[in-house]
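Next up, sample data:
>
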Amino acid sequence: MIDKIKSLAVKYRELITYIIAGAMTTVISLGSFFLLTLFFLNPKKNIELSIANVISWILAVTFAYFINRYVVFRSKEENIPKEMAKFYIARLGSLLLDIIFMLFFVNVVGMDHKVAKLLVQILILITNYLLSKFLIFKKNKNKDQ
């Protein structure tokens, strides 16, 4: 039984570590977002809601790049600035989706900003995994052999 669990853990290591890293990144994102909207910014004002999203995004993406590079995808890319730029550009796309969905759920649907943030994070997590795996940290067949 333990050997089977170990075998599954090895087989799905990347996905398991991505989920754990994603959870940690989400805690950073949500924690900073909630602290900002609790103490400093008014989530009922569109600009302040967006500012809270941007600040929490910067903190979370910076953390996410390093944990994804070194722990999840174990990148061997030598051109770190290029890889980091691709990561941040992909995450900028995610940020735009985050802002659009937040404004829609809070202002159009009338959803509580905390509930909306949790739902939007699920969509962002899936999008970011696909972009990371297939665009940013993709394995170079020639280098990996």
